[in-house]
Amino acid sequence: MSVNKRIALITTWYPPITGVAVGRMNSFANYLSEDFEVEVFCLGNTEESITKSEKLSIHYLRTNKLYQHLKSNQRDSKIIHNCKTLFRILLSKVINNPLKNWEIATLSKLQSVHEKKSFDLIISSFSPEEAHLVAINFKKLFPSVPWIVDMRDEMATNPYLDLRTKNRLLNIEKEINEYANGLTTVSEPILLDFQKSMPKISFFEEIRNGFDHSLIFEQDEKKKNNVLKFGYFGSFYGLRKPDIFFLTVENFQNDNPEFIFEIHIYGAHNNYEIPYSLKDKVFKHLGLNYLKAIEEMNKMDINLLFHPRSIRKGVFSGKIFDYISAKKPIFALVDKDDVAAKLLHDLKCGYVAEFDDLTEIKEKLDEIITDFKSQILRIAEADDIKKLHRRNSVLRLTKMIHKIISK
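^ thats the sequence. predicted structure below, dont judge the formating
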């Protein structure tokens, strides 16, 4: 048994903050601690250490207080949200390592804990790069301790980086290639890119995101009304906005006045516009805790996924797994050549249209309404849903750790 093996997890993303990255790290910590002793080194507002269980401890380390004030809040107005975003971008341009204070404090704490009771393996998760920088410097001090790098996104190959950032990340990637023993990432396309750029790393594994709850939803009773409820959960940013969907629905409603619907948006910032004709059809809600959000997803007739086409491939969007777990279909306006579209096709639980193809979106909307009226909207099979649980993803990581430690 591996109960005495010790793992350090280095990340800026950890509860009590929320988000897809937090969900990934939280599942790593929780499910790895079933087999190993796990200590998490993460970002916090205060410096403290917490023992969550016999085999899971959390160390919170602080950074510059300015970053705490620049965090986005759902209650921010559109102007405040945009200003915070702009200031964060500008600050990142001026400061190479905006989390330098956290990086220094985390390395010091990690080293101190290791010298008292050594770790058998460390894991660091990108982004941001400071988590990997902590691990690189730790490896230079303790080269015999194996290291797994977790990549939630591509690094230097991100096509939207400026040259300065790209070169900085390229230098970090070179050091990762020299020091890391294993690499995990969220999808096969990103994994294949890293295999090419980091040939010295011995172990690679696709560790997808997933859902992380045990809620059980029974088969829906026959609907007693004809109101089609769309749900969207999460934020809007960049080109990922509901504008094209709103336009399609608006046009469809003009041609089909008998079409009765509601659009419920949970947790989005006020950085999008609702057409006047849809004002009484769109309902904005504050964000919910994870389990409550899943329950609300199940109350919708169909949930919305937006992801515009990009030269970046391998982007699932974390909420896709939660949507599937809620046993409701997905209307996906996405890149049809990427992994999200393939997953929905394989599981037969969605209606997929190219993000900006108005004709195709309208055709799929027609199809959805027909299936809704016939009560045959597509949902995934129970066995396929179970496979997407984060516990199963982390099991792949557990097996990888055993291989690396025993090598």
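The chain has a mean pLDDT of 91.
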